[in-house]
Predict the structure.
Amino acid sequence: MDQRKPLDIIAIGLMVGICTIWAMQQIGLKATESYASSVFQIGIRSGLAAACVYTLTAFRQKRPLLSGGTALLGALAGLLFAFEFLLIGKALEYSTASHVVVFLYTAPVFAALGLHLKLSTERLSALQWGGIFVAVIGIAYAFLTPGPDQSGTPAAASMLLGDTLALLAAVLWGATTVLIRTTRLSELYATHVLFYQLAITAIILITIAAFTGQAGIIPSAPLFWNLAFQSVIVAFASFLCWFWMLTRYKATQLGVFSFLTPLIGVILGYFLLGDALTTGFLIGSAGVLIGIIIVSASPWIERSLRTYRTNRKDQEVTT
Protein backbone atom coordinates (compact mmCIF):
# COMPACT_ATOMS: atom_id res chain seq x y z
CA MET A 1 0.00 0.00 0.00
CA ASP A 2 1.31 3.45 -0.97
CA GLN A 3 2.13 5.38 2.21
CA ARG A 4 3.00 8.62 0.43
CA LYS A 5 1.10 11.65 1.72
CA PRO A 6 -0.78 14.40 -0.11
CA LEU A 7 1.08 17.71 -0.21
CA ASP A 8 1.02 19.63 3.07
CA ILE A 9 2.14 23.18 3.84
CA ILE A 10 5.76 22.06 4.30
CA ALA A 11 5.80 20.27 0.94
CA ILE A 12 4.20 23.24 -0.82
CA GLY A 13 6.81 25.60 0.64
CA LEU A 14 9.64 23.27 -0.37
CA MET A 15 8.25 22.90 -3.90
CA VAL A 16 7.98 26.67 -4.38
CA GLY A 17 11.61 26.95 -3.30
CA ILE A 18 12.77 24.07 -5.52
CA CYS A 19 10.91 25.39 -8.57
CA THR A 20 12.43 28.84 -8.06
CA ILE A 21 15.91 27.30 -7.79
CA TRP A 22 15.39 25.25 -10.96
CA ALA A 23 14.11 28.30 -12.82
CA MET A 24 17.14 30.28 -11.68
CA GLN A 25 19.64 27.85 -13.22
CA GLN A 26 18.93 29.04 -16.78
CA ILE A 27 18.80 32.66 -15.60
CA GLY A 28 22.19 32.32 -13.89
CA LEU A 29 23.84 30.66 -16.88
CA LYS A 30 22.49 33.26 -19.29
CA ALA A 31 23.49 36.17 -17.05
CA THR A 32 27.11 34.99 -16.71
CA GLU A 33 27.79 33.59 -20.20
CA SER A 34 30.06 36.57 -20.98
CA TYR A 35 32.46 35.32 -18.25
CA ALA A 36 32.39 31.63 -19.22
CA SER A 37 30.44 29.60 -21.75
CA SER A 38 27.29 27.90 -20.51
CA VAL A 39 28.66 24.51 -21.62
CA PHE A 40 31.83 24.94 -19.56
CA GLN A 41 29.89 26.21 -16.55
CA ILE A 42 27.56 23.19 -16.65
CA GLY A 43 30.57 20.88 -16.86
CA ILE A 44 32.24 22.49 -13.84
CA ARG A 45 29.07 22.54 -11.74
CA SER A 46 28.38 18.89 -12.59
CA GLY A 47 31.86 17.87 -11.46
CA LEU A 48 31.60 19.77 -8.18
CA ALA A 49 28.09 18.41 -7.53
CA ALA A 50 29.23 14.85 -8.36
CA ALA A 51 31.98 15.21 -5.76
CA CYS A 52 29.39 16.36 -3.20
CA VAL A 53 27.09 13.41 -4.00
CA TYR A 54 29.94 10.88 -3.83
CA THR A 55 31.08 12.30 -0.49
CA LEU A 56 27.53 11.92 0.82
CA THR A 57 27.29 8.29 -0.35
CA ALA A 58 30.70 7.52 1.18
CA PHE A 59 29.57 9.04 4.48
CA ARG A 60 26.51 6.77 4.38
CA GLN A 61 28.76 3.84 3.33
CA LYS A 62 26.64 3.34 0.21
CA ARG A 63 29.04 4.22 -2.59
CA PRO A 64 27.81 3.78 -6.20
CA LEU A 65 29.27 0.91 -8.22
CA LEU A 66 31.93 2.01 -10.70
CA SER A 67 31.99 -1.21 -12.75
CA GLY A 68 29.61 -3.91 -13.99
CA GLY A 69 26.28 -3.84 -15.80
CA THR A 70 24.64 -1.35 -13.46
CA ALA A 71 27.50 1.08 -13.91
CA LEU A 72 27.16 0.75 -17.70
CA LEU A 73 23.47 1.62 -17.46
CA GLY A 74 24.43 4.53 -15.23
CA ALA A 75 26.96 5.65 -17.83
CA LEU A 76 24.25 5.52 -20.52
CA ALA A 77 21.96 7.65 -18.34
CA GLY A 78 24.91 9.97 -17.85
CA LEU A 79 25.44 10.26 -21.61
CA LEU A 80 21.81 11.24 -22.15
CA PHE A 81 22.02 13.70 -19.26
CA ALA A 82 25.28 15.17 -20.60
CA PHE A 83 23.99 15.77 -24.11
CA GLU A 84 20.75 17.17 -22.69
CA PHE A 85 22.74 19.82 -20.87
CA LEU A 86 25.04 20.36 -23.84
CA LEU A 87 21.94 21.27 -25.85
CA ILE A 88 20.70 23.50 -23.02
CA GLY A 89 24.03 25.31 -22.94
CA LYS A 90 23.95 25.89 -26.71
CA ALA A 91 20.26 26.84 -26.62
CA LEU A 92 21.04 29.64 -24.17
CA GLU A 93 23.55 31.07 -26.67
CA TYR A 94 20.82 31.57 -29.28
CA SER A 95 17.58 31.98 -27.37
CA THR A 96 16.39 33.63 -24.17
CA ALA A 97 16.28 31.96 -20.77
CA SER A 98 12.48 32.33 -20.76
CA HIS A 99 12.13 30.39 -24.01
CA VAL A 100 14.60 27.70 -22.98
CA VAL A 101 12.92 26.95 -19.65
CA VAL A 102 9.48 26.59 -21.26
CA PHE A 103 10.58 24.28 -24.08
CA LEU A 104 12.82 22.25 -21.74
CA TYR A 105 9.86 21.48 -19.51
CA THR A 106 8.01 19.73 -22.32
CA ALA A 107 10.07 16.68 -21.27
CA PRO A 108 7.14 14.94 -19.48
CA VAL A 109 5.34 14.69 -22.83
CA PHE A 110 8.24 12.77 -24.38
CA ALA A 111 8.67 10.65 -21.25
CA ALA A 112 4.96 9.75 -21.33
CA LEU A 113 5.20 8.75 -25.00
CA GLY A 114 8.28 6.60 -24.37
CA LEU A 115 6.77 4.88 -21.33
CA HIS A 116 3.57 4.25 -23.32
CA LEU A 117 5.65 2.22 -25.78
CA LYS A 118 7.79 0.43 -23.18
CA LEU A 119 5.49 -0.36 -20.24
CA SER A 120 2.00 -1.82 -20.40
CA THR A 121 1.20 -0.17 -17.06
CA GLU A 122 1.99 3.27 -18.51
CA ARG A 123 -0.44 3.27 -21.44
CA LEU A 124 -1.74 6.74 -22.20
CA SER A 125 -5.41 7.39 -21.58
CA ALA A 126 -7.65 9.41 -23.90
CA LEU A 127 -7.29 12.37 -21.54
CA GLN A 128 -3.49 12.16 -21.70
CA TRP A 129 -3.53 12.00 -25.50
CA GLY A 130 -5.68 15.13 -25.39
CA GLY A 131 -3.08 16.79 -23.16
CA ILE A 132 -0.30 15.86 -25.58
CA PHE A 133 -2.32 17.33 -28.46
CA VAL A 134 -2.78 20.60 -26.55
CA ALA A 135 0.96 20.73 -25.72
CA VAL A 136 1.96 20.08 -29.34
CA ILE A 137 -0.36 22.84 -30.57
CA GLY A 138 1.18 25.15 -27.96
CA ILE A 139 4.71 24.29 -29.08
CA ALA A 140 3.83 24.86 -32.74
CA TYR A 141 2.15 28.18 -31.96
CA ALA A 142 5.11 29.42 -29.91
CA PHE A 143 7.52 28.34 -32.68
CA LEU A 144 5.61 29.76 -35.62
CA THR A 145 4.55 33.15 -34.26
CA PRO A 146 7.60 35.41 -33.83
CA GLY A 147 7.16 38.97 -32.65
CA PRO A 148 5.88 41.57 -35.13
CA ASP A 149 9.34 43.13 -35.39
CA GLN A 150 11.26 39.85 -35.70
CA SER A 151 9.61 37.94 -38.54
CA GLY A 152 12.19 36.93 -41.15
CA THR A 153 15.10 38.57 -39.30
CA PRO A 154 18.40 36.95 -38.23
CA ALA A 155 17.27 37.40 -34.61
CA ALA A 156 14.16 35.33 -35.31
CA ALA A 157 16.24 32.59 -36.97
CA SER A 158 18.63 32.54 -34.00
CA MET A 159 15.73 32.34 -31.55
CA LEU A 160 14.19 29.47 -33.54
CA LEU A 161 17.49 27.56 -33.46
CA GLY A 162 17.81 28.04 -29.70
CA ASP A 163 14.20 26.98 -29.12
CA THR A 164 14.75 23.86 -31.25
CA LEU A 165 17.84 22.92 -29.24
CA ALA A 166 15.88 23.36 -26.00
CA LEU A 167 13.13 21.11 -27.36
CA LEU A 168 15.70 18.45 -28.32
CA ALA A 169 17.10 18.71 -24.78
CA ALA A 170 13.59 17.95 -23.53
CA VAL A 171 13.51 14.83 -25.74
CA LEU A 172 16.75 13.62 -24.13
CA TRP A 173 15.39 14.38 -20.66
CA GLY A 174 12.33 12.29 -21.50
CA ALA A 175 14.56 9.49 -22.83
CA THR A 176 16.57 9.54 -19.59
CA THR A 177 13.35 9.16 -17.59
CA VAL A 178 12.31 6.18 -19.72
CA LEU A 179 15.74 4.55 -19.32
CA ILE A 180 15.67 4.91 -15.54
CA ARG A 181 12.08 3.70 -15.22
CA THR A 182 12.50 0.62 -17.44
CA THR A 183 15.89 -0.73 -16.29
CA ARG A 184 17.67 -1.76 -13.08
CA LEU A 185 18.44 1.90 -12.48
CA SER A 186 14.94 2.21 -11.00
CA GLU A 187 16.08 -0.09 -8.15
CA LEU A 188 19.14 1.98 -7.22
CA TYR A 189 19.44 4.70 -4.62
CA ALA A 190 18.56 8.04 -6.18
CA THR A 191 21.97 9.39 -5.14
CA HIS A 192 23.70 6.69 -7.20
CA VAL A 193 21.77 7.55 -10.37
CA LEU A 194 22.40 11.25 -9.75
CA PHE A 195 26.13 10.58 -9.32
CA TYR A 196 26.35 8.70 -12.64
CA GLN A 197 24.56 11.53 -14.42
CA LEU A 198 26.64 14.31 -12.90
CA ALA A 199 30.02 12.57 -13.26
CA ILE A 200 29.55 11.65 -16.93
CA THR A 201 28.19 15.12 -17.69
CA ALA A 202 31.25 16.74 -16.11
CA ILE A 203 33.68 14.59 -18.10
CA ILE A 204 31.93 15.09 -21.44
CA LEU A 205 31.12 18.79 -21.23
CA ILE A 206 34.50 19.87 -19.87
CA THR A 207 36.17 17.84 -22.65
CA ILE A 208 33.93 19.37 -25.32
CA ALA A 209 34.56 22.86 -23.94
CA ALA A 210 38.33 22.26 -23.99
CA PHE A 211 38.38 21.00 -27.59
CA THR A 212 36.06 23.72 -28.92
CA GLY A 213 37.76 26.70 -27.33
CA GLN A 214 35.01 27.27 -24.76
CA ALA A 215 37.06 26.50 -21.65
CA GLY A 216 38.14 30.06 -20.99
CA ILE A 217 37.08 31.93 -17.86
CA ILE A 218 37.06 35.63 -17.07
CA PRO A 219 37.35 35.65 -13.25
CA SER A 220 34.53 37.62 -11.68
CA ALA A 221 32.41 37.58 -8.55
CA PRO A 222 29.13 36.97 -10.46
CA LEU A 223 30.63 33.92 -12.19
CA PHE A 224 31.98 32.34 -9.01
CA TRP A 225 28.77 33.01 -7.09
CA ASN A 226 26.79 31.45 -9.93
CA LEU A 227 29.04 28.37 -10.04
CA ALA A 228 28.66 27.93 -6.28
CA PHE A 229 24.89 28.31 -6.58
CA GLN A 230 24.66 25.93 -9.55
CA SER A 231 26.90 23.28 -7.97
CA VAL A 232 25.78 23.20 -4.34
CA ILE A 233 22.20 24.49 -4.46
CA VAL A 234 20.89 23.43 -7.90
CA ALA A 235 22.70 20.23 -8.85
CA PHE A 236 23.20 18.86 -5.31
CA ALA A 237 20.81 20.15 -2.65
CA SER A 238 17.69 20.75 -4.77
CA PHE A 239 17.87 17.34 -6.49
CA LEU A 240 18.43 15.52 -3.20
CA CYS A 241 15.47 17.39 -1.69
CA TRP A 242 13.35 16.46 -4.73
CA PHE A 243 14.25 12.77 -4.46
CA TRP A 244 13.54 12.83 -0.70
CA MET A 245 10.13 14.38 -1.35
CA LEU A 246 9.34 11.65 -3.90
CA THR A 247 9.70 9.10 -1.09
CA ARG A 248 7.34 11.04 1.22
CA TYR A 249 4.66 12.64 -0.95
CA LYS A 250 2.46 11.63 -3.88
CA ALA A 251 4.51 11.79 -7.09
CA THR A 252 1.61 13.00 -9.26
CA GLN A 253 0.98 16.04 -7.08
CA LEU A 254 4.70 16.83 -6.91
CA GLY A 255 4.99 16.47 -10.69
CA VAL A 256 2.15 18.87 -11.34
CA PHE A 257 3.52 21.36 -8.82
CA SER A 258 6.93 21.27 -10.56
CA PHE A 259 5.39 23.06 -13.53
CA LEU A 260 5.69 26.24 -11.55
CA THR A 261 9.30 26.15 -12.80
CA PRO A 262 8.71 27.39 -16.38
CA LEU A 263 6.20 29.95 -15.12
CA ILE A 264 8.72 31.29 -12.58
CA GLY A 265 11.45 31.11 -15.24
CA VAL A 266 9.47 33.28 -17.65
CA ILE A 267 8.76 35.85 -14.92
CA LEU A 268 12.38 35.96 -13.74
CA GLY A 269 13.68 36.13 -17.31
CA TYR A 270 11.45 39.10 -18.00
CA PHE A 271 12.32 41.05 -14.85
CA LEU A 272 15.98 40.08 -14.36
CA LEU A 273 17.23 39.71 -17.94
CA GLY A 274 14.73 41.82 -19.86
CA ASP A 275 13.62 38.87 -22.03
CA ALA A 276 11.11 39.93 -24.66
CA LEU A 277 7.79 38.13 -24.28
CA THR A 278 5.71 38.16 -27.45
CA THR A 279 1.99 37.46 -27.46
CA GLY A 280 2.54 34.35 -29.59
CA PHE A 281 5.09 32.94 -27.17
CA LEU A 282 2.87 33.59 -24.14
CA ILE A 283 -0.16 31.96 -25.78
CA GLY A 284 1.91 29.00 -26.96
CA SER A 285 3.53 28.63 -23.53
CA ALA A 286 0.11 28.57 -21.88
CA GLY A 287 -0.91 25.74 -24.23
CA VAL A 288 2.29 23.84 -23.44
CA LEU A 289 1.82 24.14 -19.68
CA ILE A 290 -1.87 23.22 -19.79
CA GLY A 291 -1.13 20.19 -21.97
CA ILE A 292 1.70 18.97 -19.74
CA ILE A 293 -0.38 19.39 -16.59
CA ILE A 294 -3.17 17.33 -18.19
CA VAL A 295 -0.69 14.57 -19.09
CA SER A 296 0.92 14.51 -15.65
CA ALA A 297 -2.21 15.01 -13.54
CA SER A 298 -4.55 12.79 -15.56
CA PRO A 299 -4.88 10.08 -12.85
CA TRP A 300 -5.94 12.71 -10.32
CA ILE A 301 -8.24 14.44 -12.84
CA GLU A 302 -9.89 11.14 -13.81
CA ARG A 303 -10.38 10.14 -10.16
CA SER A 304 -11.89 13.54 -9.40
CA LEU A 305 -14.29 13.22 -12.35
CA ARG A 306 -15.35 9.73 -11.25
CA THR A 307 -15.95 10.97 -7.71
CA TYR A 308 -17.96 13.91 -9.02
CA ARG A 309 -20.12 11.64 -11.21
CA THR A 310 -20.69 9.21 -8.32
CA ASN A 311 -21.72 12.03 -6.00
CA ARG A 312 -24.10 13.41 -8.64
CA LYS A 313 -25.73 9.99 -9.05
CA ASP A 314 -26.09 9.61 -5.29
CA GLN A 315 -27.73 13.03 -5.07
CA GLU A 316 -30.13 12.15 -7.89
CA VAL A 317 -31.09 8.89 -6.16
CA THR A 318 -31.74 10.60 -2.82
CA THR A 319 -33.90 13.27 -4.46
